[in-house]
Amino acid sequence: MRLTRYFLPVLKENPSEAQIVSHRLMLRAGMIKQQSAGIYSWLPMGFKVLRKIENIVHEEQERAGHIAIQMPIIQGADLWRESGRYDDYGEEMLRMSDRHGRDMLFTPTAEEMVTDIFRAHVNSYKDLPLTLYQIQWKFRDEIRPRFGVMRGREFYMKDGYNFDLTKEDALHAYNRHLVSYLRTYERMGLQAIPMRADSGPIGGDDTHEFLVLAETGESEVFYDSAVTDLTFGDRDIDYDSVEQCQAVLEEFTSKYARTDETHDEAKFNELPKERRRVARGIEVGQIFYFGTKYSDAMGATVVDKDQKQVPVHMGSHGIGVSRLLGAIIEASHDDKGIIWPEGVTPFHCGIVNLKQGDEEADAACETLYAALEAAGLEPLYDDRNERAGGKFATMDLIGLPWRITVGPRGLKNGVVELTCRRSGESEELAPEAAVAKVVDIYANL
User: Fold this and answer.
1) Are 178 and 287 contacting, i.e. CB atoms less than 8 angstroms apart?
2) Same domain assignment for residues 268 and 407
3) Looking at residue 143, what is its pLDDT?
4) Is residue 53 within a helix (H) or strand (E), and if so which, with residue range?
5) 318 CA to centre of own chain
6) Cα(first)–Cα(last) distance of the chain, in Å?
7) Is the pLDDT of residue 231 over 90?
8) Are residues 34 and 139 in the same domain?
9) Is the same domain home to 390 and 417?
């Protein structure tokens, strides 16, 4: 993409309404525009990152054997009355009526609807296990929406639901989700720590939240510092293996890590003092096992091997796709702007022409641009007739991981400059070598 043809409305000054780094940088980098309290339009660069995150979530869900569906954003109230949650959910649920006076609601979550789909089409244990998921806009009427996309009223979310014959099967689904989430977050350049949490209005006794440590996190968290040494890496996990999934769960949850709702001060104090940590965390996902809560209430049963009707065991699993974008920025930025991890960057590499209009510099940039595109990458070429300082400031603000700088002086020596946004280190390379290095970086992700 050529910057002269792209819509990137960057701001030079910090917006007064932005209280945290991610909100400020998303507004300054032209990624979002607030339309009303807690509701945003996603502009081209923000939308590109949102799609990158969504694609990673889809890929890891499919790797784990989960099946994508799409459910309505507007639900009827009758299903929620059937489950008993319509009145219990509280004022965060946006309720409305259609022209016929029927009670409707804007989806905050979809346990009831997916249970209704299941009971209409599945009636035998032979069709289990089954996990269905969607990525869809949700709405929760937060009393004080703030922090940009971190705590908005409208948000983009992956919500998944497993249906299993027994509690043991459902707990394997729980473990499988924990494994898939660890892989998902690491692909985005995040360390998300699974912490024992409170189930809230979803219900159930087993639940873990995944939290990214950040000073602006909404939750106080307590943890053993040893948990930050754990990485998922490139493990080859068989998601059908109960033993392998259980082993990963035990490895990542055996050390103390809890949110403030479930914190146990006595257990925490059993840790060596030098390993006790108290910090803030951003919730980016949560998994639940809630047994037969919804299947009992809504008649979601199957015939088992003994020809008996039994309620299915269920769980639900959420990832805040739009929230993740803010969390990544909170975890990866400096005083110049965003620092995108390679896995979610909107463009793989920036190209800066230091002397637009110079025949040799223009030709070299065009060659670099074509070579990166031919390799399957998306470069962003700053071809504006702008001073070098302004071009560098824009590139630093929007945070592309790699930048190739082209100028007449370097070209006389047959080199361009390749700069790593995270470290700030630069090296001079022949143009072909710079392209090859960038291609190799992304090939090895």
Assistant:
1) yes
2) no
3) 84
4) helix 44-63
5) 10
6) 22
7) yes
8) yes
9) yes
**Do residues 415 and 430 touch, judged by C-beta distance below 8 A?**
yes
Which of the listed residues 338, 372, 404 is the one where a domain comes to its end? 338
The Cβ of residue 417 has, within 10 Å, a number of other Cβ atoms equal to 17
248 and 142 Cβ atoms separated by less than 8 Å = no
pLDDT greater than 90 at residue 332: yes
For residue 204, pLDDT over 60 is answered with no
Task: Say whether pLDDT at 125 is over 80.
Answer: yes
Give the three-state DSSP class for 331: helix
Q: pLDDT at residue 206 above 90?
A: no
Provide the token pair at 116: 């209704």
Q: Is residue 325 located within the same domain as residue 229?
A: yes
Tell me which amino acid residue 442 is.
Answer: Y
DSSP characters over 384-409: -S--HHHHHHHHHHHT-SEEEEE-HH
Identity of residue 234: D
Q: To the nearest whole number, what is the mean pLDDT of the chain?
A: 94
Classify residue 256 as left (phi > 0), alpha (psi -120 to 50) or beta.
beta
Helix (H), strand (E) at residue 28: helix 21-28
d(CA 42, CA 326): 13
Average pLDDT over residues 37-65: 97
Give the span between the Cα atoms of 196 and 257, in whole angstroms.
7
Q: Above 70 in pLDDT, residue 203?
A: no
Structure tokens at 271: 């840790």
Amino acid identity, residue 36? S
Cα–Cα distance, 291 to 166 (Å, whole number): 9
Residue 405, amino acid: T
| Same domain, residue pair 289 and 323 | yes
Q: Which tokens belong to 145?
A: 């929406």
Instruction: Tell me the mean pLDDT in the region 363-379.
Output: 98
